[in-house]
Amino acid sequence: MGFFDKIKKAFMNEKEVKPAELDATEEANDASEEPAAETNQEEPKTLESEQEQLSAENSQEPEPQAEPEANIEVEKEIPSTTSVEKEEAAEEIVVQEKYEKGLEKTRKTFGERLNELFANFRSVDEDFFEELEETLIGADVGFDTAIKITESLRQEVKLRNVKKPAAVQNTIIEKMVDLYEAEGIGENNALNIQKDGLTVMLFVGVNGVGKTTSIGKLAHQFKQEGKKVLLAAADTFRAGAIDQLVVWGERAGVEVVRGNAGGDPAAVVFDAVERAKTENADVLLVDTAGRLQNKVNLMNELEKIKRVIQREIPEAPHEVLLVVDATTGQNAMSQAKQFKETTDVTGLILSKLDGTAKGGIVLAIRNELHLPVKLVGLGEGIDDLEPFDANDFALGLFKGLLKEE
Ligand code: GDP
Ligand code: MG
Fold first, then answer.
1. Hey, which of 54, 73, 139, 395 has its CA 20 to 30 A from 33?
2. What pLDDT, in 10s, does the model give residues 203-240?
3. What is the CATH number of the domain that holds 348?
4. Is 57 part of a structural domain of the chain?
5. Residue 94 CA to chain centroid, in angstroms?
6. 131-172, pLDDT tens digit by residue?
7. C-beta 210 within 6 A of ligand 1
8. Residue 255 is part of which domain span?
9. Ligand 1 in contact with 216 (CB < 6 A)?
């Protein structure tokens, strides 16, 4: 049942048990209807009778459990918590809505700047293109990418002899999707998951980017699909890092192989691979430490981990996923460049897209680093990780801007 159906049903059948947010919405509605009802009264009521009536009404109503301000937004934010009912509610929220919500910040700034651009320019001229280029660069799509987009738009405008900015509005959006997809032609963005046997995925990236969180989210998804999942706490650098993975393991309901803080990460990975094999696990997700300030050590550590895995499973790891934080903009780009030089990264997880107004970074990574963005983090909750989809992304970014043609 969709969210709006649920609201409709809640209004039609007051007896039904409803989420607190819906009660609150309903109460707010009741309150706004009351003055109108009063003006219809022929005789003025005494204060007393009014109160009586109010309390009588209250007794029929369930106790309000939330502030009247609670609204649709509140309902949509449910996936960021983890209790069972909320997980069920989250399942009803489709991927597109997650993208819309996750890209709210980017849409507000980038989208609104684009809107202003369309409103302020009378014709598609050189000034318009310059301003567009700046807007795109401001959204972190990257310098080269911004130029590519405006260049292909220039050609299109010439070809179609377009004069009005409004006429190119949708074309800009199309060009951005085209550009992303053209880069990835012949390439599969899906995670490389073995049909039979164990799939091993290594998660790399600097501290704080969201490795452990992404592992927790992914573990939950695999578990939901009925897979047997095992996690390896190979970020042994800090005790806190191990504990954090254990907490995510509990949330997702999967086991964590751990060693002591300060211990050898490769030893933990060795234990984890052994256990995954004896227990016939389907997926092993390996958390690693990310100390980019010591590049040589980090590289050696990752190589050692890989060797340990490959001794047991020659074709593994099946994915080396680099996690970068979208809110760090160009910094994320330089991290990706450095990791790409030191490790065979197979794909990217772009975390915290919900926390940035510069979601254009997806395009920059694609066009300037030639790495596929495989997953995007759209929030802190267990359900807030989605496979990257260029169309969902564009729709989330431009919702309300796309014009019907
Ligand atoms: P790690 O050091 O790479 O393992 O990073 P963590 O997994 O510990 O994440 C660091 C912080 O980023 C935590 O507070 C997470 O809740 C937060 N985080 C991770 N992914 C996302 C995301 O997609 N959106 C938001 N808003 N926060 C995220
Ligand atoms: Mg971590």
1. 73
2. 999 989 999 999 999 999 999 999 999 999 999 988 79
3. 3.40.50.300
4. no
5. 13
6. 999 988 888 888 888 898 899 889 988 998 888 887 887 788
7. yes
8. 199-389
9. no
